[in-house]
Amino acid sequence: MEYKLYFDYENKKAQKEAYERVLKEYESQEIGYYHLPEHSKKFKNLKFKNFEEVVIIGIGGSSLGTKSIYEMIKNKYPIKKMIFLENPDPIDLETKFSQIKNPLFFVISKSGKTIETISIFKKVIKHFNLQKGAKNLKIITDPSSPLEKFAIEWDLEVFNIPKNVGGRFSVLSAVGMVPLRATGIDITKILQGAKEFRDRFFEKKEEHLLKKAAFYARNYKIYPVNVMFAYSTILNAFKEWYVQLFGESLGKNGKEIMPVGHIGSIDQHSFLQLLMEGMGHKTITFLKIQDFENPLKIPNINLPFLEETNFVNGATFEKLINKEEEATKEALIAKEYPVDEVILEKLTLYNIGELIMYYEILTSAIGSLLDINTYNQPGVEIGKVILKNKF
Amino acid sequence: MEYKLYFDYENKKAQKEAYERVLKEYESQEIGYYHLPEHSKKFKNLKFKNFEEVVIIGIGGSSLGTKSIYEMIKNKYPIKKMIFLENPDPIDLETKFSQIKNPLFFVISKSGKTIETISIFKKVIKHFNLQKGAKNLKIITDPSSPLEKFAIEWDLEVFNIPKNVGGRFSVLSAVGMVPLRATGIDITKILQGAKEFRDRFFEKKEEHLLKKAAFYARNYKIYPVNVMFAYSTILNAFKEWYVQLFGESLGKNGKEIMPVGHIGSIDQHSFLQLLMEGMGHKTITFLKIQDFENPLKIPNINLPFLEETNFVNGATFEKLINKEEEATKEALIAKEYPVDEVILEKLTLYNIGELIMYYEILTSAIGSLLDINTYNQPGVEIGKVILKNKF
Fold it and tell me: Quick one: A181 and A195 in the same domain?
């Protein structure tokens, strides 16, 4: 992968401080996600039998990361289909129920009592007539959570999430790795990519991350928004994962870096105008797949009266979308936005692992410099209390 | 539909000014979208034959509105499937090509030379072996555009977009109404909903819209962001349509109201923390479907150790998602955000038409008070020039 910063910035003191704080989290084992590449290796040889679809019952941190990876790779590898039961939206649930033929269910909740997840789980129990000891029903949760206790009572297989791994940082734990392993992919490659990026970071070989973190944290009042422009439709769930990661981690104590996710080139036709001529105050990150490994071409056809479009004739679609990315990037750099670019040479499992670890460490580094607790989410508790009182 | 403002605001001068400017646009016929409910009636009896899927080749304003409506209604009405070829992403295109069996194609471009659209069109011509005079190939474009001239040369049926209707305001023109009519729905109900809202607005019966517009425009420096929280997965494309409508219309001359779209209850698990404890400076709009017309219930099951979740037992999922909306709304009102709520009693074609017209007039009203040209998009031109020089 390649990381390019198109803005000039150095703050050695802040970069050093961020590095040391992140290092402390890592070495003290206080924060668990750094260690998942080793921890999750044990899932590499899991085998599940007699099913057609992997069905995830989970929301937020229990589904977004898995969905990101699945959407990026599903067209590339011959893997089982995944279906995500996330939202307690009756129309969405009914549509998805009708697609489930021969499922392997994973009920995923860190706390083990997420109301949406358990409600959907109850409906699934009834609809699919699940019983104690069901072989096609697996549980992923924290050790000793109510959901684990239930699983023991029901004689179900349980995979644990380490207590010191937060939901939005959990994709490389059992949360993502076990269901993705069930689809048939080689999760060791994802873990390897994550591990090697982490190691290079702690060997001080990824200074760009610290520069970017320092810039974002020291200038959050001038640039309270980070826009991700991801150039491929298959990065759609990834941008949502990034929105959760930044949003829940970095919006606290009256401070924030608000994540906004967009898909290129589609959103050049929607959001670009506002970037070009609005109020500014945003950093912009381009996420790009250099090599789609796909030869699809724009045919060399000359259509009468449409000759003006012939300049792309014979080019691959990959070239078109990537040149659009470059053109938009250059237009925004010319407007003096702090722009950076994250480039996946190819869409490999290794690169996906690296991308995830990059974003997680970036979030930790920014949070440490904002002097906030990156890992909690006290703001969402009050809504849960209000909800309970409405029934 | 119901519209509730949970903030106290009145600015009679600004409200009057917005009303008069919008009225002038409407009466002078300078801006065309207000008149589409009458204009598009002529499409109501269109019949298309011998096809299974409606395939849209278009991007931005040529697809988002149609997709919004389609996603909202596809589970409710027995209509033909729609497939959207939008992004020049080779992986996405190949996946969608493989789903096309017996298509009716609509190539949609207002300017008639959108590079993504024409490039994909060329690939479609080759892949599906389309010829001059093809009966399953229709063109939707501005009068006298290069694409219309091509269509005449190729002997294809053409539907025109009125010149004074901008792309992002065009869903009620041929752009949306012709392909949606082709799926089999009764577009007159959509047009009726839009017309009646417009008429009530000009009869001064929708003052809430002007209050909201005045508040947004007069406070854009304090609240430069509007977050839409739409409570149903089927509103996903609608929130993208809204992002284009606000983003391209209201980001100009160093001013902006940045649209951010989220889906409830999923994004309560991602973005809510930042709203609760971040920097504020956002208005928040809740979009809610009161009656999903779906009886799906959370079964009355008592799971050992999960008794804490029993408070929702026996409730419909509709009740759960709507109570979540209420709880989140109340939590954000308590944080003194300027919150408002748009409620569709049911998901009917009539209400969808009203919702679209509401958002379009709201955009016009805000733009008029920001003293910007709501209808152009000069900021996106430079990227197109840069792109051309890259080939």
Answer: no
Residues 178-217 of B with CB under 8 A from A: none
Q: Is residue B381 part of a domain?
A: no
Of the candidates A308, A310, A320, the one whose C-alpha atom is nearest the C-alpha of residue B122 is A310
CATH code at position A59: 3.40.50.10490
Report CA torsion sign: B354, B359, B363, B366: positive
Domain that holds residue B112: 45-185
For A3-24, write each residue's pLDDT tens digit. 999 999 999 999 999 999 999 9
Q: Is A222 an 8 Å CB contact of chain B?
A: no
Q: Which of residues 145-184 of A touch B (CB under 8 A)?
A: 146-147, 149-150, 153-154, 167-168
Residues B83 and B155 in one domain: yes
Q: Minimal Cα–Cα distance from A194 to chain B, Å? A: 23
Of the candidates B269, B277, B308, B390, the residue annotated as catalytic is B269
> What percent of the residues of chain A are helix, what percent strand, and what percent coil, each to the nearest 5?
50, 15, 35
Q: What is the pLDDT of residues A312-361, one digit of tens each?
A: 999 999 999 999 999 999 999 999 999 999 999 999 999 999 999 999 99
Domain count, chain A: 2
B251 contacts in chain A (CB < 8 Å): 273-279
A272 and A351 part of one domain: yes
In a domain, A326, yes or no: yes
Nearest CA of chain B to the CA of A376: how many Å?
Answer: 9
Question: In this structure, are B266 and B359 located in the same domain?
Answer: yes
Same domain for B108 and B85: yes
User: Residue B322 falls within a domain, yes or no?
Assistant: yes
Contact B323 A94 (CB under 8 A): no
- End position of a domain, from candidates B185, B213, B234: B185
Query: Residue A320 and residue B91: Cβ atoms within 8 Å?
Result: no
pLDDT tens digits, B128-172: 999 999 999 999 999 999 999 999 999 999 999 999 999 999 999
Q: Using CB atoms and an 8 Å cut-off, which of residues 18-57 of chain A contact chain B? A: none
A374 touches chain B (CB under 8 A): no
Q: Is B384 a catalytic residue?
A: yes
Do both B322 and B202 map to the same domain?
Answer: yes
**Residues A69/A347, Cβ–Cβ less than 8 Å:** no
The last residue of a domain, from among A185, A208, A240: A185
Q: Which among A95, A233, A299 has CB closest to B92?
A: A233
End-to-end CA distance of chain B: 50
Same domain, B340 and B210: yes
| A17 within domain boundaries | yes
Residue of B nearest to A275 (CA): B251
Assessment of whether the complete model's pTM goes beyond 0.95: yes
Counting one residue from A and one from B, how many pairs have CB atoms under 8 Å apart? 366
β-pair type (B103-109, B137-141): parallel
Residues B169 and B234 in one domain: no
Compute CA distances A341 → A136, A212, A227, A293, B67, whole Å.
42, 11, 12, 20, 30
